[in-house]
Amino acid sequence: MAVGDGAPAAELGVTGDRDEFRRPDGRLLAAAGAALLLALLLAVLREAATAPSEGLDQIWIEPLSRVDRCVSCHRADAPAFLEAHGDLLDAHPPEEFGCTLCHGGQGPATRQADAHGDVPFWEEPLLDTRRARIHGVSRAQLMEMRCNACHRAQAEVRGMPTLNAAKQQVERKRCLRCHSIGGEGAFDAPDLTYEGDKHPTHYAFPDGWRGPRTALAWHVRHFTDPAAVVPGSAMPTWILPEGQAEALALLVLSWRRLDLPPRYWPR
Q: CA–CA distance from 98 to each of 29, 125, 150, 197 (Å)?
C-alpha cells in the first residue's frame, strides 16, 4: 500500500518529523552488501557447474514425443560413447532412439541430478555404475534388463549373457507349469507378464528384512527362499548357481509394458 493510498503515516513508520530519521550504519550496509554479493556468486557458480556451457543441444524424437538433452553436457564424451556402443548403433541410431529410452534418466532436464533421475517421483533413473552397486549387480546387467524389455520374445540376444542364461533357466525349471507369461502357461501362480511394472511398495517385505527394499532384492530372496518372503508359498526352493537368482530377478523385472511404434520393435 502506498502512502498516497490513505494509509496512516505512523502505520508505515513515518511521522513526518525529519529529526526522527537516522542514517543507517555504513558498516551494516557494507556487510549486507557483501553477503548479497557472495550469495549471488555462489548461485552463479552452482548454475555454471550443472548447466551446459555452450547452450543446449538436444535430440528430438518425434515418433516417441521424446526429447533428450544428454548431449548438452556430454559433448566431449560423444566419441567415446559412440565407440563403446559399436555396431549396436546400426540397429539403434541415436537420432531415432536417443539416450534415455535405453539408459534411463530424465531427458529434458539440464541439471545433473535431474537428468540422472535422482529426484523424487522419477521412476526411470540413469542405469549407471552407482545404481548398479546399490543393487549388487553390474552396470552391464542393469542394461541387459533394460534391453530385454524390447527383446523379451527372443530366446537369445547377442551381448546379453546374463539374461540369456536366465531365459534358459525359465525353460529348465518349467515356470510355465504354474505361472503365466505373455499369455502362455498356467494360472496357479501370479501372472508375471508385466511383473517389472510393479513398484517396490507393492511388495510385502517380511519383518527383519535386511538390505535395500527394492523389487530386485525381493525377487532375489524369493528365488532362493520363497517361503521366507511369502509364508506358505508353494514355489519350490531351488539351489541355484552363484548369480543365477540375480539373473532371474533381472529377467522378471525386464518384463514391462512398452508403448512403442512397431518400427522400434526387434525384427
A: 52, 15, 15, 22
